[in-house]
């Protein structure tokens, strides 16, 4: 076996039959560990690199396990017939996959070597050298841009956005991967037409973006905070209404000039 | 003619269609007595004549006298009852159950029917004649004592044909459309003229051919009654538009089905009379229209090209037929009604697929069939789609749009499995390519087959229960003595005991089916049906007597997933990891894992113990029985039993289960399925054909699960068993692709009577264009891996829960039950719960 297949990394889940995270039917590999601490995060168990215990329906569950690329690929391979019929494949998600650069690179490479389409959901929050390494193995980059205002970005996610925006520009310019921009639409954070327009305008400047997604905030992760003994800071914030989403979509379409959609 | 071209443009529905539907569902369906009274009158007049002539004359007598009606706004006419969705009764097959249920049939939970006091009286009077004369009674007399015992102990149930007509057939609709019943009559005449009165088979054959002629004439006469009624109504009608419609109906019914259809409208009317009259002749269900889009196409194309009809009118006519298919109904006994819940007649109509030469023949009507199901939005017809590598993508996307509506239609069938599977049973390549589906999932070649599909429900869990009791059930030796399970030293020994129990039960099942088969041939040969199946005329025999070219008997096994998980758990826990002794497992099963026993369970255990004591020479009197009873009750309620039960179930819970894409477990399931499919295929039926297995439960997995004790997969006593070849409810935890991969690892070819794989989706999985694309991709991928059939429930859990709370608001909520669609609110509570419990996929 080639060495890179023995690369180890830490994941907290694998989810088959995912149809909203890249083209076709996909298997998502969730890597553990994140650079940001977004208040609305629906996978709070993804944030710490450390292996944790979370209460799930009252039962303690170990979150996180160390696996080799080969082990992951054995499971990814299972749904090859579905990838073939739908143009699907493997998607890396997190956490932020770039926190485990060697593992992420090896996973993407292993998939590509076997002819399996690759995608990655990521904030692009890493040194450019790290991103540059993985681009040759990546068919689709689903890049999050949450806000254009550095201060507000920092307040809600724990980090400022300059590095990520700069990386977005470089990824687009590289032409090595199909780039889509994803905006989590969070009430009270970025759900005004002005804020969405700013991201859409940046998307337009990038010039090489395939699609822009508006992902409405949801509360499905709420229980996990309690399970981890953490407080859910979003409180009673309601998901955006359909009318609101439609309004923001119109703004996005007008400004970005790329194909826009609600949802993944 | 363009085999490859089609017009897929959608046509809107007309105002007529919702009105027809509303009228049909205005009232609770009703039982009527006309047919029972008429057939009895006729039988009284034909005592001692050859049975085949008695049947034909009775058919004629019924059609001459049964009340007829043209419902408001109908374009296609022909109703079996005056009440919409009413039903007639068929005392020649059985009648006792109905009399016993006279006072409960209106209030029972599954498929209730209204019945008037007058109807009860009339039926009682007619039924009195049938004592000792039914197929059911004759079949019983043909069964061996051990067979009757096995049935009494719920090893299997052949209830379908034991109490009713067979149905489960697709006739040569295309021949009636082409030459009419006058043409078929001429064929019978010519055949009769060609044989010699000194031929060895002359007596049988000549009477059969005469019976065919009587039946053909009867059908023509019946249509003329409608022609006359339409004229009368036209004369009275003040609405000019409707008047013209009625005059057209009169003209149609004067021409067809006597003559060949001259156009699409006549072809539709002719089709309908065949469909309706087959069900008047016998009470069989699953009389399946089959490849409607193929045999109707020439009439459609000709009329369209000549400008005689528009596509819009053709669509409206098809919509009318779709509504009419819901007008036919059947009252089953309470137990069967649970098993076939939803007033379903399983009239399977299939679109798309290949012709005999292997060319895809999807056409306009294939698309319009999908559209008709969307327009009418009712459970019938059981609508199916044929899928193969050459199926147009657009066709599957359109079918997926229908799936997305949540109506539970269509079911998808894989040509790439079904064609070779039929060929392995002796069907020619050309015939196999033209297959259609009967009833739920059963493939066959139309107009040439008496498939006896759906011949029994065989519960694969029961033989395993007998392994644990050394063949004993409720104090009776039901199965062979395979030895004390606690003494079985190896897993192979244990598995062998299961095989022995299976083989024995299968043999008795064959005995039961063949007894019923013979009874139908003797007492209810069907000349009208047989006039439309090859090669009855040449052979001079009805289909019941072996007149069809292809003859099968297809009883369906169910509980594959439960047995796979059970046997695998036994192997792992008892024999390999030794975490559990057989003694502990046996005790846990007997006490329902400490979750409580009902009175019947306690009585059954007591009877087993008493029998064992008697066999050991100990006296067993009333006081001993009382003592045993007390011990059983105390033991089953003991806290340590409960604790043990919980512990053991937890151990079992941790053993890998079928449905999670684990090759080792799936390979094991494949072997377990063979314990049913392999022995069965060695048996022959009285019509000269062979047995072939199906693996699907209709909805019997719920009521028959209720007759099944706890199983080693952790399933509690009396809860539903797994549905079809699907994984056990809630045990597939790795999503739909993993479940599909597991199921595809079963051998779908050997189960040539059909397999059934149910998946439930939330509508979000099919949203948007990409949702449809991915959904079609999922079906294609399962079929790439050689799965045979797939069907879907697309409805949210919340919707179903709300429908349970407010049934009034969900009168039209259709769900896919198992092989067919049914109105959710008409299902029994337990079946509703089962549907809700199934893993909800697609989040």
Give the helix proportion of chain B (percent range). 40-55%
Number of strands of chain A: 11
Shape descriptor of chain A: globular
Strand content of chain A: 25-35%
Q: Indicate the CATH architecture of chain A.
A: Alpha-Beta Barrel
Describe this structure in words.
Chain A is an alpha/beta fold. Chain A has a single domain (3-262), classed as Aldolase class I (TIM Barrel, Alpha-Beta Barrel), CATH 3.20.20.70. Chain A has helices spanning 69-77, 80-86, 101-113, 128-134, 150-157, 162-174, 193-206, 222-227, 242-256, and strands spanning 8-18, 26-31, 52-56, 59-63, 65-68, 89-93, 117-122, 140-144, 178-185, 209-216, 259-262. In chain A, strands 5-1-2-6-7-8-9-10-11 form a nine-stranded mixed sheet. A two-stranded antiparallel ribbon of chain A has the order 3-4. In chain A, helix 7 (193-206) packs parallel to helix 9 (242-256). Chain B has a domain at 454-543 and 556-756: Alpha-Beta Barrel (Anaerobic Ribonucleotide-triphosphate Reductase Large Chain). In chain B, strands 1, 7, 8, 11, 12 and 13 form a six-stranded mixed sheet that branches. In chain B, a hairpin with a 2-residue loop joins strand 9 (472-473) and strand 10 (476-477). Chain B starts with 15 loop residues before the first helix and ends in a 6-residue tail after the last helix. The model of chain B is unreliable at 839-843 (pLDDT under 50). The A-B interface holds A 15-17, 19, 24-25, 78-79, 81-82, 84-86, 88 and B 661, 734-738, 741, 765, 770-771, 773-774, 777-778, 780-782, 784-785, 841-842.
Write a brief structural summary:
The complex is a heterodimer of chains A (264) and B (843). Chain A is of the alpha/beta class.
Summarize the topology:
The complex is a heterodimer of chains A (264) and B (843).
Chain A: E1 8-18, E2 26-31, E3 52-56, E4 59-63, E5 65-68, H1 69-77, H2 80-86, E6 89-93, H3 101-113, E7 117-122, H4 128-134, E8 140-144, H5 150-157, H6 162-174, E9 178-185, H7 193-206, E10 209-216, H8 222-227, H9 242-256, E11 259-262
Parallel strand pairs in A: 2-6, 6-7, 7-8, 8-9, 9-10, 10-11
Antiparallel strand pairs in A: 1-2, 1-5, 3-4
Helix pairs in contact in A: 1-3, 3-4, 7-9
Chain B: H1 16-24, H2 34-45, H3 51-65, H4 96-100, H5 117-128, H6 135-142, H7 145-152, E1 156-157, H8 159-163, H9 173-194, H10 202-236, H11 240-255, H12 264-281, H13 292-295, H14 297-306, H15 311-324, H16 334-339, E2 348-351, H17 364-376, E3 382-387, H18 393-404, E4 411-414, H19 415-423, H20 429-433, E5 436-438, E6 442-444, E7 449-450, E8 453-459, H21 461-468, E9 472-473, E10 476-477, H22 491-523, H23 527-530, H24 536-539, E11 550-558, H25 560-576, H26 582-590, H27 599-615, H28 622-637, H29 639-653, H30 663-680, E12 690-691, E13 694-695, H31 735-744, E14 758-761, H32 768-784, E15 789-794, H33 797-805, E16 814-816, E17 821-823, H34 829-837
Parallel strand pairs in B: 2-3, 3-4, 7-11, 8-11, 11-12, 11-13, 14-15
Antiparallel strand pairs in B: 1-8, 4-15, 5-6, 9-10, 16-17
Helix pairs in contact in B: 1-15, 2-3, 2-5, 3-10, 6-22, 7-22, 9-10, 9-12, 10-11, 12-15, 15-17, 17-18, 18-32, 21-22, 22-30, 25-30, 26-29, 27-28
């Amino acid at each position: 076996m080639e060495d890179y297949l023995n690369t180890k990394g830490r994941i907290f889940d694998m989810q088959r039959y995912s149809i909203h995270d890249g083209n076709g039917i996909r298997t998502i590999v969730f890597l553990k560990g994140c650079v940001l601490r977004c208040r609305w995060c629906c996978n709070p168990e993804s944030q710490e690199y450390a292996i944790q215990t979370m209460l799930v329906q009252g039962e303690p569950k170990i979150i996180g396990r160390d696996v080799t690329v080969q082990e992951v690929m054995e499971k990814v391979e299972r749904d090859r017939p579905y990838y073939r019929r739908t143009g699907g494949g493997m998607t890396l998600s997190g956490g932020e996959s770039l926190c485990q650069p060697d593992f992420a690179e090896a996973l993407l490479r292993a998939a590509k070597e076997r002819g399996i389409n690759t995608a990655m959901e990521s904030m692009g929050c890493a040194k450019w050298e790290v991103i540059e390494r993985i681009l040759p193995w990546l068919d689709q980059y689903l890049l999050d841009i949450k806000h254009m205002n550095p201060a507000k970005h920092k307040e809600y996610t724990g980090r400022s956005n300059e590095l990520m925006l700069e990386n977005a520009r470089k990824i687009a310019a590289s032409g090595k991967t199909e780039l889509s921009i994803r905006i989590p639409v969070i009430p009270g954070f970025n759900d005004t037409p002005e804020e969405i327009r700013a991201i859409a305008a940046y998307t337009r400047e990038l010039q090489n973006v395939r699609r822009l997604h508006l992902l409405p905030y949801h509360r499905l992760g709420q229980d996990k905070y309690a399970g981890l003994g953490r407080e859910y800071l979003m409180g009673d914030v309601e998901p955006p209404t359909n009318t609101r989403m439609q309004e923001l979509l119109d703004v996005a379409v007008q400004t970005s000039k790329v194909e826009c959609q609600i949802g993944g | 003619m363009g085999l490859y071209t089609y017009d897929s443009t959608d046509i809107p529905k007309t105002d007529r269609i919702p009105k027809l539907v509303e009228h049909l569902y205005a009232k609770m369906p009703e039982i009527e007595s006309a047919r029972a009274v008429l057939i009895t009158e006729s039988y009284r007049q034909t005592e001692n004549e050859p049975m085949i002539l008695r049947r034909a004359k009775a058919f004629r007598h019924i059609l001459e006298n049964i009340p007829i009606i043209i419902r408001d706004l109908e374009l296609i006419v022909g109703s079996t009852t005056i009440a919409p969705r009413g039903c007639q009764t068929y005392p020649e097959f059985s009648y006792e159950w109905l009399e016993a249920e006279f006072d409960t049939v209106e209030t029972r939970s599954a498929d209730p029917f209204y019945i008037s006091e007058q109807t009860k009286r009339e039926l009682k009077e007619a039924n009195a004649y049938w004592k000792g004369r039914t197929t059911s009674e004759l079949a019983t007399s043909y069964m061996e004592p051990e067979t009757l015992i096995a049935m009494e102990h719920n090893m299997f149930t052949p209830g379908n044909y034991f109490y009713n007509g067979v149905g489960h057939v697709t006739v040569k609709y295309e021949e009636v459309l082409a030459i009419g019943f006058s043409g078929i009559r001429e064929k019978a005449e010519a055949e009769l003229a060609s044989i010699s009165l000194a031929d060895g088979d002359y007596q049988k054959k000549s009477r059969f051919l005469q019976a065919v002629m009587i039946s053909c004439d009867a059908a023509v006469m019946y249509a003329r009654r409608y022609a006359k009624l339409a004229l009368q109504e036209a004369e009275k009608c003040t609405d000019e538009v409707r008047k013209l419609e009625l005059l057209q109906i009169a003209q149609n019914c004067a021409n067809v089905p006597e003559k060949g259809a001259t156009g699409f409208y006549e072809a539709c009317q002719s089709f309908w009379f065949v469909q309706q009259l087959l069900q008047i002749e016998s009470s069989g269900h699953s009389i399946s229209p089959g490849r409607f889009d193929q045999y109707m196409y020439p009439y459609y194309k000709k009329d369209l090209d000549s400008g005689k009809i528009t596509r819009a009118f053709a669509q409206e006519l098809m919509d009318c037929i779709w509504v009419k298919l819901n007008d036919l109904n059947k009252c089953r006994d309470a137990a069967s009604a649970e098993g076939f819940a939803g007033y379903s007649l399983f009239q399977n109509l299939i679109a798309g697929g290949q012709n005999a030469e292997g060319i895809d023949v999807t056409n306009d009507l294939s698309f319009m069939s999908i559209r008709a199901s969307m327009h009418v939005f009712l459970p019938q017809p059981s609508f199916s789609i044929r899928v193969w590598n050459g199926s147009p993508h657009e066709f599957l996307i359109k079918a997926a749009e229908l799936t997305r509506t949540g109506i539970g239609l269509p079911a998808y069938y894989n040509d790439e499995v079904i064609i070779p599977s039929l060929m392995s049973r002796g069907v020619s390549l050309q015939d196999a390519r033209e297959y259609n589906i009967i009833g739920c999932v059963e493939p066959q070649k139309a107009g040439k087959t008496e498939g006896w599909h759906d011949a029994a429900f065989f519960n694969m869990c029961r033989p395993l229960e007998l392994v644990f009791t050394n063949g004993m059930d409720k104090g009776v030796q039901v199965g062979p003595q395979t030895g004390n399970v606690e003494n079985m030293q190896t897993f192979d020994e244990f598995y062998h005991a299961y095989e022995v129990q299976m083989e024995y039960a299968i043999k008795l099942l064959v005995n039961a089916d063949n007894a019923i088969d013979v009874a139908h041939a003797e007492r209810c040969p069907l000349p009208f049906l047989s006039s439309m199946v090859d090669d009855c005329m040449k052979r001079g025999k009805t289909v019941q007597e072996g007149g069809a070219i292809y003859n099968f008997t297809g009883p369906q096994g169910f509980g594959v997933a439960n047995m796979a998980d059970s046997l695998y758990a036994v192997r792992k826990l008892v024999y390999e990891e030794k975490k559990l002794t057989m003694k502990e497992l046996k005790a846990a099963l007997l006490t329902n894992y400490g979750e409580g026993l009902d009175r019947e369970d306690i009585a059954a255990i007591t009877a087993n113990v008493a029998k064992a004591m008697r066999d050991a020479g100990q006296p067993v009197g009333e006081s001993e029985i009382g003592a045993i009873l007390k011990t059983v009750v105390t033991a089953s309620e003991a806290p340590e039993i409960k604790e043990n039960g919980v512990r053991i179930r937890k151990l079992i819970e941790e053993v890998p289960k079928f449905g999670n894409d684990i090759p080792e477990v799936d390979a094991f399931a494949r072997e377990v399925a063979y314990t049913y499919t392999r022995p069965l295929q060695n048996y022959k039926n009285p019509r000269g054909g062979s047995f072939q297995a199906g693996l699907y439960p209709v909805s019997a997995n719920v009521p028959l699960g209720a007759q099944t004790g706890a199983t080693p997969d952790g399933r509690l006593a009396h809860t539903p068993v797994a549905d079809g070849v699907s994984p056990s409810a809630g045990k597939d935890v790795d999503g739909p692709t993993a479940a599909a991969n597991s199921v595809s690892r079963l051998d779908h070819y050997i189960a040539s009577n059909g397999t059934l794989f149910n998946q439930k989706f939330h509508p979000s999985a099919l949203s948007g264009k990409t949702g449809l694309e991915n959904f079609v991709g999922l079906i294609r991928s399962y079929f790439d891996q050689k799965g045979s059939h797939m069907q879907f429930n697309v409805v949210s859990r919340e919707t179903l829960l709300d429908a349970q709370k407010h049934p009034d608001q969900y009168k039209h909520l259709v769900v896919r039950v198992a092989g067919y669609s049914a109105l959710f609110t008409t299902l029994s509570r337990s079946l509703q719960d089962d549907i809700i419990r199934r893993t909800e996929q697609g989040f």
